[in-house]
Amino acid sequence: MYYWTNELWRLGYLVGGLGLLGWVLGEPGWGLAVGLGLFLFIHLRHLRELYVWLTYHPGREPPVGSGVWGDLFDRLYKYQKSQRLTQQRLRDVIRRVQESSEAMRDSVVMLDSRGDLEWWNSAAERMLGLQTRHDRGQHITNLLRSPRFVDYFNARDYREPLTLPSPLRDDLILQFQITLYGDDERLVMARDITRLHRLEQMRRDFVANVSHELRTPLTVLSGYLETYAALTEDMPEEQLPPRWQRGLTQMQEQTTRMQNLVNDLLLLSRLETDHRLEQESRVDVAALLEQVAADTRALSEAGHVVRIETDTHRGLAGIEQELHSALSNLAFNAVRYTPPESTITLRWRPWRDGAALEVEDNGEGIDPVHIPRLTERFYRVDQGRSKATGGTGLGLAIVKHVLLRHDAQLEIVSQPGKGALFRCVFPAARLYLPEAGETPNAMRSTSD
């Protein structure tokens, strides 16, 4: 405000002085015109100096100006200097980020909001085959054309990483992780997990081979034990001493337990390694629930009440044998880990956009601290009680892999003293409506 007031006084002095001079000379109008023209000339000259400075010599010292122009030149110079410092700091930060990214062994790719390539490090060139000359500005899916990656990229659900072979080499296994940042931009990171993948494959092969090799000696051992047990029953006079009889019974129990463990290991190994679903068919969920309920009642020796609730007539597309195995594991766990005469409910009902198979009990429940680890192999909430019930510790791991093969998820809801609910959530794409001639799932509730 001070400078504008000062500038008005300068205008007044200049115009007034020349106007007075013109009045003395008998031409007051010309005096005023010359004063205004001179004032305008001074401002136009300063404006030209400002234009030349900013256009051709922005790095030099500002021109010398008087009045408001001098202050304007000084302020622009200070602002320009601070901007240069800020830009230099940003360039240093970007340079350090790029240098650190270049030092990484993982691929780093920056995408804009449309998914076009903006920048990547040298590891991305080695792992993904990106070329600076040709690929900048290309859409990521034009270069990584795997249908699984395209679906993963478009789904925008990046909570879990994606494992794929490199587009350059099938023997190079990469784990992709995408992060959203800024204005809907994406950061794609790819890590070489070939060694871990091979170790995991070796572990799976080892478990499968050992389990397969154990089946034959266990079958032979079980057969001889059954023969000896039958002989002692048929010929009382040849009864074994009580100590030997007790040992024979324990050997039979442990052999049966090992056979169950081997069978579960083989099933889990097949689920992990076989990615083809060639035997998919339309599964009558109501009939499946009836079969599992019958097996559950046969397993229970403590008077458990098994109920069936069907709240939708839609069927489920999948492999019936695998779905039966998953649901049986959940129901059998409910029998093993709930008190006598507890109620177990098998339920098929709509859930969100799809439907859910549920196994619910009113037993002792599970502490929420254990829930995230329940699907791990051999994880047991109570080691002593789990071994006493005859479980192998692989049931929920089998359930998890069966659901993954059917595009489903396992949700566990439980509190101590409030029972447990295991919910298998299937997407709408897995459901179907019975056609003419097919028997729909009856909407009913039964118990026994």
3D structure, described in words:
It holds the Pfam family PAS. Member of the two-component regulatory system PhoR/PhoB involved in the phosphate regulon genes expression. PhoR may function as a membrane-associated protein kinase that phosphorylates PhoB in response to environmental signals. By secondary structure, the protein is of the alpha+beta class. It folds into 4 domains: 2-94, no CATH class; 104-192, 2-Layer Sandwich (Beta-Lactamase), CATH 3.30.450.20; 196-273, Helix Hairpins (Orthogonal Bundle); 281-447, Heat Shock Protein 90 (2-Layer Sandwich), CATH 3.30.565. Helices cover 52% and strands 18% of the residues. The protein has a 6-stranded mixed beta sheet with strand order 11-12-10-9-7-14. The chain has a 5-stranded antiparallel beta sheet with strand order 2-1-5-4-3, sandwiched between helices. Strand 1 (107-111) and strand 2 form a beta hairpin. Helix 9 (242-273) runs parallel beside helix 13 (395-405) and helix 10 runs parallel beside helix 11. It is elongated. The N and C termini lie far apart (92 Å). The model has no long low-confidence stretch (mean pLDDT 79).
Number of strands: 14
Radius of gyration: 40 Å
Strand/helix succession:
HHHEEHHHHEEEHHEHEEHEEHHEEEE
Strand order of the largest sheet: 11-12-10-9-7-14
Domain Histidine kinase: 209-430
Enzyme class: transferase
EC number: 2.7.13.3
Organism: Modicisalibacter zincidurans
Q: How is the secondary structure organized here?
A:
Layout: H1 2-24, H2 28-56, H3 68-103, E1 107-111, E2 117-120, H4 122-128, H5 132-135, H6 140-143, H7 147-155, E3 162-165, E4 173-181, E5 185-192, H8 194-234, H9 242-273, E6 281-283, H10 285-299, E7 305-310, E8 315-318, H11 320-336, E9 343-351, E10 354-361, H12 383-389, H13 395-405, E11 409-414, E12 420-426, E13 431-432, E14 444-447
Parallel strand pairs: 7-9
Antiparallel strand pairs: 1-2, 1-5, 3-4, 4-5, 6-8, 7-14, 8-13, 9-10, 10-12, 11-12
Helix pairs in contact: 1-2, 8-9, 9-13, 10-11, 11-13
